[in-house]
Write a structure and sequence with these properties.
Strand content: 5-15%
Helix content: 40-55%
Shape: globular
Radius of gyration: 28 Å
Length: 556
């Protein structure tokens, strides 16, 4: 077990003032009342004023079922320069954009606090462990992950390690400006374990830092933060957010050192809304903007129809690079062949690809597919040499495709969702959203289809609105019918005919609660339908402008 060099207390406290926690709790209570699938909890505390708080909305819980294979825990905002001890769980969606899996306020930082946080979060996510998790280097978090998520591969943020190294070796960074460049090169560009080990040793000797305690600590922890040791595990890194090495880009720009807890809720909602809009735009671009193909390869055309636009561009980059990375066979043992793949003009650097012709499977020494879920140029070069014209299904991860959010959920999640009425609301919401998006996609293609889709949506909106008006009468009839059934059952079973006043009141309360929940659902469905109608109106306007411009062009 690794611990930081400096002495640390068993508890680190951040004490936000101004009744901020009560402000957040009031907001969370309102959110849960509006949507039963909204989840929040407070760690046991005598007066909840400084208790740790965790919350997650229905959309985040649903997104986790699709993209929860790799998770990032961002704790940057709990550092002393920030006024809010804010923590968030995030990941990547099928566009490579950050997606939220839950948030927390942790004013009392301790091992037990983080154990509670991970257990609570895992419970909210139906007990489904991620494949991997990335966090800052922190002894409390390290112990908590090992205890609560033992099967999950734990990685320390490379950006966080670089930041801490710069702080702890500031004198070296100032006196030797080239050290940082060489240090980063050693960590990021080493392609084999042996290459990293020799480069690291050379670096220590060159700058006379063999006995530095911090570097020794980081070397001992190398298997949890140096990329070459982690490439056999999926982390969802596709370099789409390149330049954003830090963990906090979901809330980047929405929170800073001056953000108070009173302002937190507003900024949280802004960030969630903005990223939701960006995802919808990316969905629209994927469907309506066909990418430009750069090769005659049928595999490229296949990938363009399968992947989202951003992920396809990453695949396309790898495919085009096969033209400059020929594959040379170096061994042939029946169905198993081994190839050396190197870029033209580079004699020292190469990668080894093993290809199984009977199963159409390949593995590369770079392990890009295992790490990012996108096939590398080296395997694609071998496919080209072996005349494999289309992508084998095992090399297309659904989480990177256009259909990532359709179809069945993970089995573990499906069983949990079916057992909980709260989660079933979320499932129905997601299904409705997907169907509505289909109408938008098809309706935007032509004026004729637009009018058909618009009429269908308007009719659906009227029916949903009508449900709300009928609910009160339905509830009253249900109470009368229920009492009538109870009297018949009581007569059959030779028990008193009339229920007690307490039992009747309880029944009325149950039905009233059910009515309120139904009304809330109707409001949600109605709001979403109206949003779709607004989108289609915008599409109609855009189409009209295009038609007008086309007519003007013809006249000219």
């Amino acid at each position: 077990m690794l611990y930081a060099v400096e002495q640390m207390s068993s508890v680190r406290q951040h004490a936000p003032g101004g009744g901020g926690h009560h402000h957040v709790l009031d907001y969370l209570k309102r959110m849960q009342a509006a949507n039963p699938a909204f989840f929040y909890t407070v760690q046991d505390d005598n007066d909840h004023s400084l208790g740790n708080i965790f919350w997650v909305d229905a959309t985040s819980r649903m997104n986790y079922s699709y993209f929860g294979d790799s998770v990032i825990l961002d704790t940057a905002y709990r550092t002393n320069r920030y006024r809010v001890p804010f923590t968030s769980f995030t990941g990547f969606n099928h566009h490579g954009q950050p997606v939220l899996f839950g948030c927390a306020l942790i004013p009392n930082e301790s091992e037990s606090s983080f154990v509670w946080l991970f257990r609570t979060w895992l419970q909210a996510m139906s007990g489904c462990h991620p494949v991997s998790i990335t966090t800052d280097f922190d002894p409390f978090i390290q112990v908590a992950v090992a205890q609560v998520l033992p099967p999950t591969r734990h990685r320390f943020s490379t950006w966080g390690v670089f930041r801490e190294t710069r702080n702890k070796l500031s004198h070296l960074f100032q006196s030797h400006p080239t050290f940082e460049t060489e240090f980063r090169k050693c960590v990021n560009e080493s392609e084999t374990v042996d290459e990293f080990e020799s480069y690291w040793q050379l670096l220590l000797e060159r700058y006379y830092i063999m006995d530095n305690e911090w570097l020794q600590l980081m070397y001992n922890a190398r298997q949890q933060w140096v990329p070459v040791y982690l490439r056999d595990t999926f982390f969802g890194d596709v370099s789409i957010t390149e330049g954003n090495e830090c963990l906090n880009f979901f809330f980047d720009g929405y929170m800073n050192a001056s953000t108070t807890i009173q302002v937190l809720v507003k900024q949280y909602e802004k960030a969630v809304s903005t990223w939701h809009e960006r995802e919808l735009k990316a969905d629209y671009d994927t469907i309506n903007c066909s990418p430009v193909l750069k090769t005659p390869s049928p595999m490229e055309k296949q990938a363009a129809s399968l992947y989202t636009r951003k992920i396809f561009m990453k695949f396309q980059e790898e495919l085009v690079e096969t033209l400059a990375n020929p594959a040379t066979k170096i061994d042939d043992s029946g169905t198993i062949s081994t190839y050396r793949v190197a870029k033209f003009g580079e004699k020292t650097k190469s990668h080894t690809v093993t290809f199984n012709s009977s199963e159409i499977k390949a593995s590369c020494s770079c392990q890009m597919f295992e790490y990012s879920g996108i096939i590398c140029r080296h395997v694609l070069a071998v496919f080209r040499a072996k005349n494999v014209l289309t992508l084998p299904s095992q090399y297309v991860l659904k989480r990177w495709t256009r259909n990532a959010k359709t179809g069945a959920l993970f089995d573990e999640h499906a069983s949990e969702f079916s057992r909980s009425s709260h989660e079933s609301v979320t499932v129905r919401y997601n299904n409705l959203r997907q169907e509505a998006i289909k109408y938008v996609e098809e309706g935007a293609k032509s004026i004729k289809i637009y009018h058909i889709a618009m009429n269908a949506l308007q009719e659906a909106s009227k029916k949903v609105s009508a449900i709300k008006g009928q609910s009160n009468g339905t509830a009253e009839r249900s109470i009368i019918a229920s009492e009538g059934r109870d009297e018949l059952l009581a007569a059959d079973e030779d028990v008193p005919i009339h229920q007690s006043a307490v039992e009747k009141q309880k029944k009325i309360q149950e039905l009233t609660t059910e009515l309120e929940i139904t009304n809330e659902r109707c409001e949600v469905y109605r709001a979403n339908l109206l949003a779709v109608l607004r989108d289609m109106e915008e599409q109609k306007l855009k189409l009209s402008v295009k038609v007008q411009n086309a007519r003007l062009s013809l006249k000219e």
